Amino acid sequence: xxxxxxxxWAVAFASVVAFxxxxxxxxxxxxxxxxxxxxxxxxxxxxxxxxxxxxVAMLVTGVVSSRIGPKRTLLLGLVIIIAGAGLxxxxxxxMGIVGWRALWGLGNAxxxxxxxxxxxxxxxxSVAQAIILYExxxxxxxxxxxxxxxxxxGISWRGPFFGVSVLMAIALVVTTLLLPETPRPQRMxxxxxxxxxxxxxxxxxxxxxxxxxxxxxFTLLTFxxxxxxxxxxxxxxxxxxxxxxxxxxSVVVAPRLQHRFGTVRVLLVNLLCFSALLxxxxxxxxxxxxxxxxxxxxxxxxxxxxxxITETVMKAAPVERGVASAAYSFxxxxxxxxxxxxAGVLGERVSVxxxxxxxxxxxxxxxxxxxxxxxxxxxxxxxxxxERSDSGNKQENAVEEITEQATAVTVxxxx
Length: 415
Fold this sequence. Notes:
Elements: H1 6-24, H2 29-35, H3 40-43, H4 45-68, H5 70-89, H6 94-122, H7 127-155, H8 159-178, H9 193-197, H10 201-223, H11 225-228, H12 232-261, H13 263-283, H14 288-316, H15 321-349, H16 354-373, H17 385-414
Helix pairs in contact: 1-6, 1-7, 1-8, 4-5, 4-6, 4-15, 5-6, 5-8, 6-7, 6-15, 7-12, 7-14, 10-14, 10-15, 10-16, 12-13, 12-14, 13-14, 13-16, 15-16
């Protein structure tokens, strides 16, 4: 799995830096609120604008990539991230940062969806191994992000934003030099393709599950720093431990559990455990030791979930992987966009415990959706599952070509 072409490692490195951007800001949420006289719900908009734009932009990633090519799409995304992060660091108002974070989210959308498809298509070995490599990059980025954010945030709350710009500039150079020019897909995708993909009940079920799961995930990620009420260094260390657990289970534990018990069964148990953990956080919100411990433990469940859900999406949908990734990402980032803002509002106006209860309920509902749609995912653990998916892609393309030819003949005869 680890003997991969240079192009794969180039994209994986850039992915590490891209995912650092998620956790990098977490330790400085409270310092930003303190320095700019903002409320938790206002500061949480840094995540909401970022995730909302990213989710919507996922719908156009395939359209852009199929027209300018995957490499140029990756590089365009990196350039936009560099600009968005740098301009956010120079802002003097919360809403200014929120706006530039939205631009950052656009860049991340162009990069992330294309990066996943590029790694899966370019890596040696199976799809599962390629996804593990991608999730390893995700886990490493998320693990290191809070630590770097805590260190730079201890100097200034602007530090993490400028840090992202510098790291992304390095990633831009590495990707430009090591990733060869990738050919454009034979068929240009349209804005309607991701929505057509969601007609497949297996993909739709997994996407809705991911939406609800990410609601709980980002409630934990964005709201917990406020009841913890610690400095940037301490928050960074706690979420660094969380990220290490996430990276470990995504790469080491998830494949073993999947092999032994099956994908859907592991996902269901994992979601139930994560929901229970959020309930413990809801009960023990006033105890910093309980909150900090639960954050670290949550990384174990999140790592398993991220790997298995991503792999399920890549195997379940009988469409091109880029289209499947765009459809799935659009749905999951929807939950990630709503959760930070709603958690902040509920925590301010109702109760500091309520955001965790709502998050736990969302994850529990996600487990229910997965259980109801599991019959549409029955073939994902068979060795021929991906072969059938690839065959389905080829058949679908062939049908489209035949349909286009038939249409052309019909139009010609009519005229």
